[in-house]
Design goal:
alpha/beta; Rossmann fold; OB fold (Dihydrolipoamide Acetyltransferase, E2P); 2 domains; five-stranded parallel beta sheet; five-stranded antiparallel beta sheet; 7 helices; 15 strands; elongated
């Protein structure tokens, strides 16, 4: 498994390399001392795995992952245990505390072996470009709106609103914009969970709290955050057909 070690402390990198040398399945192809250097090396070398420190100069390991288009398997290695929950939220394979204990590292390598078996079994299957494949409710999407970045699960998005050449994404109190048409977005969303209410809105069906009859045979729904969206007459017919027993 082609691996890059990313840590701003040289001694920490050396110690981890020393611990990993007995694992023949791990091939250390490079190392990086800061996130900027790591990003370039990951893009160029395309490793299968990275051992990643959290606290580094400039940006954190979490912020570094947000800048990658393709993220390899990640094992965080850090002196701080308070980031463990966040690490698993970004689907890290494991979270090791410094100084790394050999027995604990062995558990990580075993996890990698199991995970790699699954990877190898899927390697022969045709690869699907994530940028075009259908999205499930548990998928997370990366959104960059100006200087702000978000990494949000689709299940937490209440609705999408067409806004010219952009789409406004509603989750929590945030409303970032993405450069995409509502039609192209609709093609990738699971119709079991997202419904095209009208020409301007796609709503998350799981976020509907109330439905009432509306003008001209349409419907009006209220979402969890209090937004009220009209379902057009044409879509109201489809809504009733799809969800009536």
């Amino acid at each position: 498994m082609r691996t890059i070690i990313i840590d701003d402390e040289r001694l920490a990198r050396e110690e981890l390399k020393k611990l990993l040398k007995d694992y023949h399945e791990i091939e250390i192809i490079d190392e990086a001392k800061n996130p900027e250097e790591a990003i370039e090396k990951i893009k160029t070398l395309k490793p299968d795995l990275i051992f990643l420190d959290v606290q580094m100069p400039g940006i954190t390991g979490f912020d570094m992952l947000k800048k990658l288009d393709e993220i390899p398997k990640v094992v965080f290695v850090t002196a701080y245990d308070e980031f463990a929950l966040k690490a698993f939220e970004v689907k890290a394979l494991d979270y090791l505390l410094k100084p790394v204990e050999p027995n604990r590292l062995d558990e990580t390598i075993q996890k990698l072996a199991i995970n790699d078996d699954e990877f190898q079994s899927n390697a022969q299957a045709p690869k699907i470009d994530r940028s075009s494949r259908p999205l499930s409710l548990t998928d997370k999407i990366f959104i960059k709106d100006g200087e702000k970045c978000f990494f949000v699960a689709l299940e937490n998005i209440r609705m999408f609103e067409s806004d010219g050449n952009y789409v406004k994404v509603y989750f929590d109190k945030s409303r970032p914009l993405i450069l995409r048409s509502l039609n192209s977005l609709e093609e990738r969303l699971d119709p079991e969970h997202f419904f095209r209410a009208n020409r301007k809105y796609i709503i998350n069906l799981n976020c509907i709290t109330f439905v009432e009859n509306w003008f001209n045979g349409g419907l009006q729904v209220e979402l969890t955050n209090g937004e009220k969206i009209e379902i057009s007459r044409r879509q109201a017919i489809k809504f009733k057909e799809q969800f009536t027993l």
